[in-house]
Amino acid sequence: MASTQTHWPSALTDLELARLSARGERAASEELVRRAAGVVGDLLRRMGAGDALADDVTQDAMVTALGAISGFRGEAAFATWAMRIAGRLYLKRRRKEARYELMAEPVDAELGGPSEEVSSALRLDLNRALARLSPPERLCVSLCHGAGLTHDEIAADLSLPLGTVKSHVTRGLKKLRILMIGSSADE
Amino acid sequence: MNDTEFEALLGGAYAEPSRRTPSPQMVGEIMARADRRRRSRRLVLAMATLAGGAIVAAAVTATGAAGLVSRALAHLGAEPTLLSPSLCVGVGVFLILLVAARNEIREF
């Protein structure tokens, strides 16, 4: 019985935990943090953040998410919700550098084939493939497909033309497709 | 694999559970910050409620007191006249401008 009491939060859904957290249940908030902090940190590193910045923004995102927990409706996982918050906070922090990077001329590097044989460890493939994208492509693809921001939101947050963001996402996706599954959409 | 399928695959890869588990120190720091934020929000809300209540109480008290004074003066035979509210508004605006000017000078 004691062990059930100790581990009760892990058996609950994100929405149940969020409701308890909104009522001030500390253990529920801690469980939500444990569920989301890792994946949020991964997303930030994939966007190009160093370990220190990723940890810093992860903390900010978690604090913001817990502060707004009563607004969590459970339509997606809590981690997905937190990733979106983290994406926006990261953009806010790196607004100047990100704008500069995104405005730079795109460089077409030689990609070759998939980074390795297409493996079941997709995460590993994604990390390797992202490492071979240019920083703006990595940032835009991760904001769009990782944090779930729309092209419009990214363009507005960075005060950049929509076309610039769209072209980085399109180029990034095309390269990722070749690197991860070894074919482009045209084939 | 078409574009939609690939994008779904990509979204899934981003959302895969992390291999890095947050350290207990990090979880502790996040919880401490969230608690501080929650407490300061409650404090601000309580102070705003208190200030609002105090303003209402002051207005009710002032109206009552003004009525009493007015009746007392009338009893003494004097004819009290009400102060024009525009004068109070004018004094308020003057004080606000004074505070704004002081802040500007301090910033400068």
Please provide a written account of the structure:
The complex is a heterodimer of chains A (187) and B (108). Chain A is 69% helix and 0% strand. Chain A has helices spanning 2-7, 14-22, 26-47, 51-67, 78-93, 95-103, 122-131, 135-146, 151-158, 162-181. Chain A has two domains: 1-93, Orthogonal Bundle (Rna Polymerase Sigma Factor, Chain: A); 94-187, Arc Repressor Mutant, subunit A (Orthogonal Bundle). Chain B is mainly alpha-helical and 108 residues long. Chain B is 82% helix and 0% strand. Chain B starts with a helix and ends with a helix. The chains are: A mainly alpha (187), B mainly alpha (108). Chain A binds chain B through residues 24, 26, 29-30, 33-34, 37-39, 41-43, 46, 55, 58-59, 62-63, 66-67, 77, 79-80, 83, 122-123, 125-126, 141-142, 145-146, 173, 176-177, 181, 183, 185, and chain B through 1-3, 6-7, 9-22, 26-27, 29-31, 33-34, 37-38, 41.
The total strand number of chain B stands at: 0
Which structural class best describes the helix and strand composition of chain A?
mainly alpha
Helices and strands of chain B, in N-to-C order? Answer: HHH
Helix content of chain B: over 70%
Distance between the termini of chain B: 63 Å
> What overall form of chain B do the CA principal axes indicate?
elongated
**Main sheet of chain B?**
none
Task: Find the biggest chain interface.
Answer: A-B, 38 and 29 residues
Low-confidence stretches of chain B: none
